[in-house]
TrEMBL record:
Annotated signal peptide: 1-17
Keyword Disulfide bond listed: yes
Keyword check for Transferase: yes
Name listed for the protein in its UniProt record: (wild Malaysian banana) hypothetical protein
Native source organism of the sequence: Musa acuminata subsp. malaccensis (Wild banana)
A single GO molecular function term of this UniProt record: glycosyltransferase activity
Length: 334
């Protein structure tokens, strides 16, 4: 499946310069520059892919093409944050929609490298939900549809994701830490999350978050944690983790720990993917724990709430029966 979508990306037609745009921060919070919320489609979503590294451009093109073929996707917006990248290098990413049922793919050069820009409200987001994702994660079509169905079933207030983390308290240091627990979580990552479009405006335009957004800029990290703060403050609930199939090209465990400097990832021709991610930097986990502590101090409250378990696509038999001398699920067919 992964190889197939990579080739699909290479075969899509290129592009008109009109599919490139650059938003300004001054327009983002002006309601006159945004569509009427009542006109946003509830039955489709817009995919926002954050991109920065030119080494990932072949993979990014493949992922954008894959999302654009999904029947629930109204548009794919590539949010390019590297100001030094020449326009010619990005020209093959964008496509017009319509042909073959593809959603349009457009490239938006960010006004700065700020990670806050991935949550800017945008005039061409015409759906009530957005899927925010990284440029090294490919979600299978069925999993994307299921995650969106879960988001809709929660009334659009929940933050739904596929990658979970947690906050925890260091009692000795009296500071929050960033952790992973096998039985609970309070944060979902922007590797892939579905969030209501209204939360983009709250994140970007709420004056109470000004200091927190500046911290994201200083650290070049933690924008996903801040979005989890925002949604928890509004909903009073934790995020929702869904199960599904995801290809994570950026995970450092790819290739069994062998350096990608000499290994082709799955035959895709994409090399060195995992070495350019933020999580590959030293001190990443400590920095994120510091962000949680600082957000708590800045906002004067700790809104993050734990969630337990995940929502799975299936309600099969849970009971065990003995069949053929083995214990198997009772609906298992011999």
């Amino acid at each position: 499946m992964w190889r197939k979508t990579f080739l699909l990306g290479l075969l899509l037609p290129s592009v008109s310069p009109l599919l490139f745009s650059s938003e300004s921060y001054s327009d983002a919070c002006d309601p006159r520059s945004l569509p009427d919320p009542l006109t946003l489609r509830p039955d489709r979503l817009t995919v926002l892919i954050n991109g920065y590294s030119e080494a990932r451009l072949p993979l990014l093109r493949s992922l954008a093409a894959s999302y654009a073929t999904h029947p629930l996707v109204a548009a794919v917006l590539i949010l390019w944050g590297n100001p030094s990248t020449p326009a010619a290098a990005l020209s093959s990413l964008a496509t017009h929609g319509g042909a073959g049922g593809f959603a349009p793919i457009s490239v938006h050069r960010q006004p700065s490298p700020s990670l806050n820009a991935r949550f800017l409200p945008r005039a061409n987001i015409r759906t009530r939900a957005v899927a925010v994702c990284d440029d090294d994660v490919e979600v299978e079509p069925r999993t994307l549809a299921f995650a969106f169905a879960v988001w809709r079933s929660r009334g659009g207030a929940a933050l739904v994701g596929l990658f979970a983390r947690s906050h925890d308290l260091d009692l000795e240091q009296r500071r929050w830490i960033y952790a992973m627990h096998p039985d609970r979580y309070s944060i979902v990552l922007t590797k892939f999350m579905i969030v209501g479009t209204d939360y983009l405006r709250r994140y970007s335009c709420w004056g109470r978050l000004s200091e927190a957004r500046r911290l994201v800029d200083r650290e070049r990290n933690c924008e996903d944690i801040l979005m989890n703060f925002v949604t928890a403050m509004e909903s009073g609930a934790g995020p929702v983790l869904v199960g599904g199939r995801v290809r994570d090209w950026g995970d450092p465990r790819n290739n069994g720990g062998i350096s990608n400097s000499s290994v082709d990832n799955g035959g895709s021709g994409v090399v060195g993917i995992e070495r350019v991610g933020l999580s590959a930097r030293g001190g990443h986990r400590k920095k994120r724990g510091d962000c949680i502590t600082e957000f708590h101090r800045m906002l004067g409250e700790m809104p993050l709430r734990y969630s337990y378990g995940k929502v799975v696509d299936g309600v099969g038999e849970q009971g065990l029966c003995r069949k053929g001398g083995r214990l198997v699920l009772c609906d298992h067919q011999e």
